[in-house]
Amino acid sequence: MVETRQPIDNNEIEVTQNKNVTPETITTTMILEDLNSGVDRNGIKDKYDLETWEVTQMFQHPALKGKKAKKIRKLSFNFVDDTPQEVTFEEAIAAESNPNQLDLEDAIADELQGRVEMDAQDQANEMDHLESKADDFNERGY
User: Cα(15)–Cα(3) distance, rounded to whole angstroms?
Assistant: First the structure.
């Protein structure tokens, strides 16, 4: 277990703008985030105002053992990928498909409904035609 420095008196800790103060708790997650951000061991030592032996002891922890800072390199120019994007088969189908397009079952149901409506209309027309003939027949006195 790592022992932390405890101040004897609040007046012993002098806070200046140029010097960082060691936090009361430093977690492995904090150190891992620093490493992922490109902060190396010396940067961690400076950031948390630690002694070299404290940093060494911290990095003995299994979660930190062997971990190193990621090298973050920033390009001195804006690099843009302007190559045409390859489209997957699923993306192509999704882009080409009509959201109003019916699936096969819906198309069959619509067709059957249309035929039922047409049959009903044909029957109504036939009834009108027969009634018209019956009226003609009655007017002639048959």
Answer: 21
